[in-house]
């Protein structure tokens, strides 16, 4: 195996039972311990008979509740997820946690911030184009008070949520599968399919199952590919954080899995435009970080 990012998993203890135990621990932390805050919030809302708000068990959504509260409840699951993953890496595999991100001794935070900025520029461009094509689909939902309260919460929790998914799928799992083969395509495709599956439960998938399933698969393939290409998880972290922050802060969906007081709300997802525009963003992001710099070096 010649890829440093995948090969770095060899620095820890990697018996098969350690990966089985690590996956079970992270899954338990995420899907069992992690749902406790959401359940407590639902119980609290339901117990307040004087309030108009309530939790609908059929849709698993809160009604008449400020979106900030279910947003926090849902994202706290990823705090538990991250804690479980940290325990697995540090104590079961006895590796440094930073090895999920980079073979280097430190993370390049400026590269992550640059990646988020590039993603936001591209996402803004395609959103502006969509608003021109379908202006009736965009509703201005900006509320200054709610937005100012929400921004610091989103910066912390959404960044943590996206980072945890990257650390687990493109870090822990991809490096683990990479131990079994010299071909990078196998961990890239394998983890991309695993990433797609839980996202198929998102409510927005109802707008077009096959097209949105394709979107999630292509997104995962893109993130995995640039991770191997860059020999680091930094750009995948930037893209994922940038994508999720842009959604919850600026342009969210009516039936989003993560409701938020965003500036604009799209009433209906156009799965075709979503897929095509996402490919444009992927291409633009890849050009900026890989092709542009190569061209500049050649010209010099």
UniProtKB/TrEMBL annotation:
PANTHER family: MEMBRANE-ASSOCIATED PROTEASE-RELATED, PROTEASE. Keywords: Hydrolase, Membrane, Metalloprotease, Protease, Transmembrane, Transmembrane helix. Coiled coil: none annotated. Its EC number is 3.4.24.-. Residues 150-246 form the CAAX prenyl protease 2/Lysostaphin resistance protein A-like domain. The chain crosses the membrane at residues 20-45, 68-92, 112-134, 140-163, 184-201, 207-228, 235-253, 273-291. This is CPBP family intramembrane metalloprotease. InterPro entries: Rce1/LyrA-like_dom. It holds the Pfam family Rce1-like. GO terms for biological process: CAAX-box protein maturation. One of its GO terms (molecular function) is metallopeptidase activity. It comes from the Bacteria.
């Amino acid at each position: 195996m010649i890829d440093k990012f995948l090969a770095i998993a060899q620095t820890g203890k990697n018996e098969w039972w350690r990966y089985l135990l690590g996956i079970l621990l992270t899954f338990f932390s995420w899907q069992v311990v992690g749902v406790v805050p959401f359940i407590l919030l639902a119980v609290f809302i339901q117990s307040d008979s004087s309030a108009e708000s309530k939790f609908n068990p059929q849709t698993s959504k809160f009604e008449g509740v400020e979106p900030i509260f279910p947003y926090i409840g849902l994202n706290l699951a990823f705090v538990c997820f991250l804690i479980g993953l940290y325990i697995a890496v540090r104590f079961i595999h006895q590796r440094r946690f930073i090895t999920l991100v980079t073979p280097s001794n430190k993370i390049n935070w400026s590269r992550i911030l640059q990646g988020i900025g590039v993603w936001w520029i591209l996402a803004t461009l395609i959103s502006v184009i969509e608003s021109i094509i379908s202006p009736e689909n965009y509703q201005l939902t900006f509320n200054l008070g709610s937005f100012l309260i929400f921004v610091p919460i989103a910066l912390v929790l959404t960044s943590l949520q996206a980072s945890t998914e990257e650390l687990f799928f493109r870090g822990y799992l991809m490096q683990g599968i990479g131990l079994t083969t010299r071909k990078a395509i196998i961990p890239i495709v394998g983890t991309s399919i695993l990433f797609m599956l839980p996202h198929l439960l998102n409510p927005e998938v109802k707008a077009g199952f096959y097209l949105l399933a394709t979107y999630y698969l292509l997104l995962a393939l893109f993130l995995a590919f640039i991770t191997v290409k860059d020999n680091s998880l930094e750009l995948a972290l930037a893209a994922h954080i940038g994508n999720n922050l842009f959604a919850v802060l600026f342009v969210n969906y009516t039936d989003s899995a993560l409701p938020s007081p965003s500036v604009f709300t799209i009433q209906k997802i156009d799965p075709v435009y979503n897929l095509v525009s996402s490919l444009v963003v992927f291409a633009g992001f890849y050009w900026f970080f890989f092709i542009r710099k190569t061209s500049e070096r050649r010209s010099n």
